[in-house]
Amino acid sequence: MTHTVLVTGVSRHIGARVASVLAADPGISRVIGVDTVPPPTLTRDGGVSLGRTEFVRVDLRSSDIAEVIEAADIDTVVHMSLVSAPSRSGGRTAMKEHNVIGTMQLLGACQRSAGVRRVVVRSTTAVYGSSPRDPAVFTEDLEPNVGGPVHGYAKDAAEVEGYVRGFARRRPDVTVSLLRFANFMGPGVDSPLTRYFTQPVQPTVFGFDPRLQFVHEDDAVEVLRRMATEDHPGTYNVAGAGVLLLSQCVRRAGRAPLPLFSPAFRALGDTVRRLGLVEYSPEQVRLMSYGRVVDTTRLELELGWRPKFSTGAAFDDYLRAHGLRPVGGAR
Amino acid sequence: MTDVAHEREEGRVIPITTAPSYAEPEPLAKALAFLRRRLTGDYEVDEFGYDPELTDKVVLEMLRPIYRRWFRVEPVELQNVPREGGALVVANHSGTLPVDALMLQVAMHDEVGRALRLLGADLVYQLPVLSHLSRKTGHTLACPEDADRLLRKGELVGVFPEGFKGVGKAFSERYELQRFGRGGFVASAIRAGVPIVPTAIVGAEEIYPKIGDLKVLARALGVPYLPITPFFPLFGPLGLVPLPSKWMIEFGEPIRTDEYDPSAADDPMLVFNLTDHVREAIQQLLNELRLRRGHAFPPFF
Question: Which domains are assigned to chain A?
Fold first, then answer.
């Protein structure tokens, strides 16, 4: 069977890597990458070679995407175009439109298309929220008691998941895989969290030491590749084995923690957000207080494979790439 | 390599500690290695946030003198605690502050050699400092998902079904078991097919005799109760020193749940009956153990 794969969000790091891996697969005849901005060049900005991926500049919020799917006779859609932080120019409204309206347009086009057989959507474990009243480890079918997403990225992701479930109901003949990724970590990842660990001083919430989980970019790409080339319907958590406490991360990075009482932490977050430095949503304040851990048994049973990097190994790989090391230690 | 040669090879392996050249590392070297691991973040915690090294070397180390010298805790019938596999330790809760949970943890760790994973109230996980200390010492939120997960992993889980009703009861009600919630712990034990170990803790009732309750202030602070004892708040922080009562902890005969089908956890009648059975077993242990201990403050009373 020949495959024609559409990858959205190819101008971002993980999206580009997925597109290039799929483009290198001889079983796939065509890879079409779409995004709202052109991919970064190879020489600057840490661009990734896209191989024989054909790039089409499409604004997902418009119905142009339907034409691309129709014209190229797409059978597999890998939807990676979920942005986790508002851009400096667009702000939160543009981010929400991009995430939610973009997904609606894409799924609408898939629903109309006769050729689409498989849809893979990237989501996030942030949909579980973080709260002191929820179980310590989330499995895929757990709904958060309280502290479910009410803001920002997590809320977008929860809404996107709602539309994906609706789509799966209306088109039972299409294989739909929904992947909830833990925070990406690795040499090429640039996210609010990776930027946080490169700061010289790390503000933490006094009296709380959240459990964090990371997934290495290589493992994320591998999971997406398998989902795009094999049938694995369902919702899956994706994270490296084990957990790291925030205090462990800070020590491994050789940085100084700055414990702040939670109102002060929130105020500082608001200030840096207003300055456009970092996105600090109430969601992140909760994550920095209560943490979040997910169970990945379902993914491991389904794929018969487990991530190569544990949470700790993924973080160490990120530290190595950025030249960070603990005080007085070699790593 | 043939099997025989392989066997011979294995036979030659001797533990490094018995080698003639082996010397036990200096305490100072050990302490430095410990500090280095802690400072560089080079240690493991499990998915619940349990940090075995911190628990053993720091937290329990601070509790051990209280366990041995202050309360002179005497565990009895330790053989009733399974040495491996999942099990649910169910105990009475008392003492105004949950000191009994800490002492039970020391007893399990030092006398049985097992980590006790307690299920705590959600209030604990909302408070700064207490929440992360609780996770680091191996405890988690009392909810069916966490209880099931720990039992499935073969952990020794501890629960105080009386909750705040037990720990915050008046001194006049000492050694009277309070209501046992909804029996969720029994359902978890049935689902995992693990034994329930009824446990009686005698001595914790006398550490802070609660003779009154500042209800209005407690409500304003969002805590379940604010106790008045003969020494608190009268003597200020000094009133927080627990009275040195004599403690005993007895572990009863394990109650098996593996003969039930896991689906029996959804049968409310069975769960209620088994909950009552566990409650009666603990009350009986308590009555006998209290007589056996005698005076709370020997040799004075």
Answer: 3-185+214-240 (3.40.50.720)
